[in-house]
Amino acid sequence: EALEIVTGKRQLDASAILDYFHPLIVWLEKENNKTKEHIGWVRGE
Questions:
Q1: Which GO terms are recorded in the biological process aspect for this UniProt protein (predicted)?
Q2: DSSP tag of 4
Q3: Cα–Cα dist 18/24, whole Å
């Protein structure tokens, strides 16, 4: 209820922060591909 009172919405939207960091995300993806970095968990056997 407090969120709705302050923002007028019942849900949050992260699109603005994703737009802001998009250039960084693109750069990081390119750099990780260049260095063959694996991002995430390694599956156990």
A1: proteolysis
A2: H
A3: 10
The angle at the Cα of 41, spanning 32 to 21, to the nearest 5 degrees, equals 45
b/e per residue, 16-34, with b = 16+ CB within 10 A?
Answer: eeeeeeeeeeeeeeeeeee
CA distances from 6 to 10, 14, 26 (A): 10, 16, 33
Alpha-carbon gap, residue 10 to 21, rounded angstroms: 24
Name the DSSP letter for residue 17.
H
Global pTM value = 0.59
